[in-house]
């Protein structure tokens, strides 16, 4: 499945959330990640994030698509990281 994750977190928890998301997904820009995940890896990422966030202050949104094939992406401007495939 194709996953897009965005978050807004407190300064102390932001680096921890960033590290977890980077472990599973590709970093697109500040607090935005995307990539292909299995259902198991998605659940594992959710569990890890759940142990770090403060549910009264932080906010994470995970968009899940059956496949990247059924999504489209429009970009404008210069990306923060180079786009491409990692081998």
Automatic annotation (TrEMBL):
<keyword id="KW-0460">Magnesium</keyword>
<dbReference type="GO" id="GO:0043571">
    <property type="term" value="P:maintenance of CRISPR repeat elements"/>
</dbReference>
<keyword id="KW-0255">Endonuclease</keyword>
<comment type="subunit">
    <text>Homodimer, forms a heterotetramer with a Cas1 homodimer.</text>
</comment>
<comment type="function">
    <text>CRISPR (clustered regularly interspaced short palindromic repeat), is an adaptive immune system that provides protection against mobile genetic elements (viruses, transposable elements and conjugative plasmids). CRISPR clusters contain sequences complementary to antecedent mobile elements and target invading nucleic acids. CRISPR clusters are transcribed and processed into CRISPR RNA (crRNA). Functions as a ssRNA-specific endoribonuclease. Involved in the integration of spacer DNA into the CRISPR cassette.</text>
</comment>
<dbReference type="GO" id="GO:0051607">
    <property type="term" value="P:defense response to virus"/>
</dbReference>
<dbReference type="GO" id="GO:0004521">
    <property type="term" value="F:RNA endonuclease activity"/>
</dbReference>
<dbReference type="InterPro" id="IPR019199">
    <property type="entry name" value="Virulence_VapD/CRISPR_Cas2"/>
</dbReference>
<dbReference type="GO" id="GO:0046872">
    <property type="term" value="F:metal ion binding"/>
</dbReference>
<keyword id="KW-0479">Metal-binding</keyword>
<protein>
    <recommendedName>
        <fullName>CRISPR-associated endoribonuclease Cas2</fullName>
        <ecNumber>3.1.-.-</ecNumber>
    </recommendedName>
</protein>
<feature type="binding site">
    <location>
        <position position="8"/>
    </location>
    <ligand>
        <name>Mg(2+)</name>
    </ligand>
</feature>
<keyword id="KW-0051">Antiviral defense</keyword>
<dbReference type="InterPro" id="IPR021127">
    <property type="entry name" value="CRISPR_associated_Cas2"/>
</dbReference>
<dbReference type="GO" id="GO:0016787">
    <property type="term" value="F:hydrolase activity"/>
</dbReference>
<keyword id="KW-0540">Nuclease</keyword>
<comment type="similarity">
    <text>Belongs to the CRISPR-associated endoribonuclease Cas2 protein family.</text>
</comment>
<keyword id="KW-0378">Hydrolase</keyword>
<dbReference type="Pfam" id="PF09827">
    <property type="entry name" value="CRISPR_Cas2"/>
</dbReference>
């Amino acid at each position: 499945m194709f996953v897009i994750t965005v978050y807004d977190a407190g300064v102390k928890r932001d680096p921890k959330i960033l590290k977890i998301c980077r472990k599973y997904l590709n970093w697109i820009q500040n607090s935005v990640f995307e990539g292909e995940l299995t259902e198991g890896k998605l659940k594992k990422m959710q569990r890890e994030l759940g142990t770090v966030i403060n549910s009264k202050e932080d906010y994470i949104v995970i968009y899940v698509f059956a496949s990247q094939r059924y999504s489209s992406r429009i970009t404008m401007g210069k990306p923060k990281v180079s786009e491409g495939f990692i081998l």
